[in-house]
Amino acid sequence: MPKSRIRKKADFTPPPAKQTTNIKLTNRSWVAPVMLALFLIGLAWIVVFYVTDGDLPVESLQNWNIVVGFGFIAGGFGVSTQWK
User: Fold this and answer.
1) What are the C-alpha distances in Å from 39 to residues 36, 42, 63, 68, 69?
2) For a tag on the chain, would you pick the N or C end, based on fewer CB atoms within 10 A?
3) C-alpha distances in angstroms, 12 versus 8, 30, 71?
4) 58-71 pLDDT, tens per residue?
5) Quick check: helix, strand or coil at residue 58?
6) C-alpha closest to that of 66 among 81, 45, 83
7) 36-54, pLDDT tens digit by residue?
């Protein structure tokens, strides 16, 4: 039986090195205080509304004061997505 030809494989050449780009991290020290402030303002808004039987914080909004309080809380959650 005849001997098969030996195929010479090319030497392995690694792929070119990827150039790394520096990720510029911004200073996000403002996120935690703003987030907590929004949570507390929203909570205080709702508590004041219930404690004063709807007279405060804004009497003309009536029950919409609850929506405003939860809006502040939702804003706190929105800001929390920026936290790293």
Assistant:
1) 5, 5, 19, 12, 9
2) N
3) 12, 50, 60
4) 888 989 999 999 99
5) coil
6) 45
7) 999 999 999 999 999 998 8
